[in-house]
Design brief:
The complex is a heterodimer of chains A (264) and B (251). Helix content of chain A is 80%, strand content 0%. In chain B, the strands form two sheets. A six-stranded mixed sheet of chain B has the order 5-6-7-3-8-9, sandwiched between helices. In chain B, strands 2-1-4 form a three-stranded antiparallel sheet, covered by helices on one side. The longest helix of chain B is centred in the C-terminal third of the chain and has 18 residues. In chain B, a hairpin with a 4-residue loop joins strand 8 and strand 9. Chain B has 251 residues and is an alpha/beta fold. Classes of the chains: A mainly alpha (264), B alpha/beta (251). Chains A and B meet through helix 7 and helix 8 of A and strand 5 of B.
Chain lengths: 264, 251
């Protein structure tokens, strides 16, 4: 009897988060539909949620969506890749070399506060509205995130491990870098990479809204002709692509950091 | 004496310090001997060990390691108080660390690792990550990593001070067995007098400021030893007296 009672209470506990999660979505859609139906904002500027699926099919079959997504992903991959590699190299060099650290300290303080989007002006001036321009803007933001993460992670490596390396014949710079510094700093470095995976995506859309071809530009174009449902389609596509890239990175991170207590 | 370590008139000063922490320290360690170094905290025991290990350089004096440099071996290996396992390597990987810089082929490396895993009772833990180990197991891995390079001299820096009393006794008993099999000389730094007397052929007391050898006491009791007898022996009292402020025969 008691076991049966246990089963009755167990099922709703498992289902609860799903039911509430769906409930939240339904509630949001209802509010949204009301806002559209009762014209809470200026007429014609609120998309109808129930027309979004139709708009999605339309964007897809018209051949606009897939090239836009691919174009965005190209900017994203290049910007992210270049920014991560350069940020890692400069951050690591600054952390291990005293003179390099001193040489770049003031420069970093001057350049760091400039938002990546401020560089859009030069991106367009130098690269016109090209893939390289978008990648350039993304790479700047990604660079800083990875630079700081790598710099502090490498500086914080416990010096007792260097003593260990010395005692067991790994005193040379490169063997120490490979066997001690890099693995010891990897959690901090990967935190930077993960942060930039998200940040790059935000910068990307903003850069594209300013004219570089991709999803951001498609959104702008749709808004220009009042096709707000299509704007929502791209917003959802952005969300989906980001979720996918974050998931892929999460898998990689768990694999690399499998030695950490928290990832077991 | 057939010494494997010859320390003569050693002086060391911490960077920036006015007076040396160690001065006129002379000490020989015989081949295959088990020598404990005891002394109050801050007296420079670990510093002496690191100089013998070649990790820091003395200000003056001479440290001679007379063991022959051989291919596939290191003359000295260090066991740390904190175990110092690299958390990003599993037990097997930690033990392999010292072997990677010796010119051994993969097969020799694997058999060395297997050998020390068996010797330290860690065979079934080879795939564990350091965070999955107890304090005693961590110290065993530290010992296995040092033994894997087949050292002539095993330098141990308070290796059992951070484990619980029962584990400590167990590890002490095993260390005696491991040392006898390995053929290495052991320099064992500790602040635990009973531990030093139970384990060693010889207890060296460091004292004074700057520190030097204030007493050097030989222990001829045959092994296996009885812990209780060892603790109650006159030698334990002698070491304790040498450690007491103002104690110790001046050499």
């Amino acid at each position: 009897m008691s076991a049966r009672a246990g089963q009755w209470t167990a099922a709703p506990t498992r289902l609860r988060p799903i039911l509430f999660g769906i409930g939240g979505l339904v509630l949001f859609l209802t509010l949204w539909k009301c806002a559209e139906a009762f014209e809470w904002v200026r007429r014609g500027t609120m998309p109808d949620p129930f027309l979004v699926p139709h708009a999605a099919v339309d964007e897809f079959t018209s051949g606009r969506m897939v090239p836009a997504i691919i174009s965005s992903l190209i900017h994203y991959a290049w910007g992210l890749g270049v920014g991560i590699v350069l940020g890692f190299l400069v951050g690591a060099a600054a952390a291990v070399s005293r003179w390099f650290d001193e040489l770049h300290a003031y420069l970093a303080r001057v350049l760091r506060p400039i938002p990546p989007l401020a560089w859009v002006i030069f991106a367009i001036a130098w690269f016109q509205v090209s893939h390289a321009g978008a990648a350039f803007v993304i790479a700047i933001g990604v660079f800083w995130v990875n630079y700081f993460a790598t710099y502090s992670a490498v500086q914080k490596v416990d010096p007792r491990f260097f003593e260990l390396a010395e005692a067991f014949g790994h005193g040379g710079f490169w063997t120490r870098a490979r066997n001690i510094t890099l693995p010891a700093a990897s959690p901090g470095i990967l935190t930077g990479v993960r942060t930039s995976v998200g940040q790059a995506w935000m910068t990307l859309i903003a850069a594209e809204l300013l004219g570089v071809p991709g999803m951001g530009q498609e959104m702008n174009a749709a808004a220009g002709v009042g096709a707000y449902e299509a704007v929502v389609v791209y917003m959802l596509a952005i969300s989906a692509v980001y979720a996918a890239s974050d998931m892929v990175f999460g898998i990689i991170e768990r694999r690399v950091l499998r030695w950490m207590p928290s990832s077991v | 004496m057939d010494a494997v370590i010859g320390v003569k008139d050693l002086r060391y000063r911490y960077p920036g310090a006015e007076t040396p922490v160690i001065n006129s320290l002379t000490l020989d360690v015989a081949r295959r001997a088990f020598v404990s170094v005891v002394g109050g905290s801050g007296v420079g025991k670990s510093t002496l060990l690191r100089m013998i290990a070649g990790l820091i350089a003395p200000e003056a004096g001479d440290i001679r390691i007379t063991a022959e440099q051989q291919i596939g071996r290191r003359r000295r290996a260090l066991v740390f108080q904190d175990g110092r396992l690299m958390p990003w390597r599993d037990v097997h990987g930690n033990i392999a660390f010292g072997l990677e810089k010796l010119s051994l082929n993969a097969q020799e490396r694997a058999s060395r690792i297997e050998e020390v895993l068996a010797l330290t009772g860690l065979t079934q833990f080879a795939d564990r990550w350091p965070h999955q180990l107890s304090g005693g197991q961590t110290q065993r891995v530290g010992i296995a990593r040092a033994l894997a390079v087949k050292p002539d001299i095993l330098l141990m820096d308070e290796p059992f001070s951070a484990v619980d009393a029962l584990t400590r006794q167990h590890l002490q008993t095993e260390l005696t067995r491991i040392w006898q099999r390995s053929g290495a000389a052991v320099v064992f730094v500790t602040h635990d007098i009973e531990e030093a007397v139970y384990l060693s052929d010889r207890v060296v007391v460091l004292g004074g400021n700057p520190a030097r050898v204030t007493a050097d006491i030989a222990i001829d009791d045959p092994r296996p030893r009885d812990r209780a007898v060892s603790a109650a022996s006159s030698i334990t009292r002698e070491v304790a007296e040498a450690l007491a402020p103002g104690g110790g025969a001046h050499i």
